[in-house]
Request: fold
Amino acid sequence: MKNKINFGAIIVYYIIAVICRYAATKTNLLSGIENPYLVILLRGVGPALGALAAIKIFALKNPMSLKGIYKNAIVPFAVYWILPAVLIASSYYFTIGKFPILLMFTILVYGLLEEIGWRGFLQEQLKSLPKFTSILIIAVLWFAWHLNFEMTASNLIFFGIIFFGTWGIGKVYSSTGSLLAAAGVHSLNNFFRNGLHETELTLIVVLLIIWVGFIIIYNRKYKTAVNPA
Reply:
């Protein structure tokens, strides 16, 4: 039997997520904070706060896990966080002469804060819908959450990225059940704020190949362990 969608919980979640986003990006509320890494995190905390509030208020049985199908959280942490952080920080070193490790993990935590909401909560709440419908709803809400409604070519491209990101990250989350894995993939775009060049594109392709291969191989072993012949 399909789970009934709790629209009240989704509304509460989204209102909190948008209010937090608006306060962080459209007001001067964060202007007094000198730590740039903290500012980054506060800009993305809304979906996590909204999800946790909705789950608490409506007493939802909404499964969330950092480790997912893996035996412990160390595996997805190493594959989806340590690996991209080391590779991308090394790339930055050869470009600008320093290892921005703190920036790397700030971006990864930012991705986790978003993924708690978009995948951990909203995707779970909408999983009874047809996949395309669920993807479209999440993509539209995620795009609108950024509070940038100008009808420009770059915004249309951004919506396309959001839509395919919703599909791709959603596949990772449904395959692994791990918020760490979803956050790692989510963060790929945020790592390269100054645009994509040959080196960055190569890193993204390499990481995606490694991650897709790892998911396929691990899932085969996981299914064999759960359902032995």
Summary: Residues 198-226 form the longest helix (29 residues). The CA atoms of residues 223 and 229 lie 10 Å apart. The chain has one domain: 64-226. The chain has a mean pLDDT of 90.
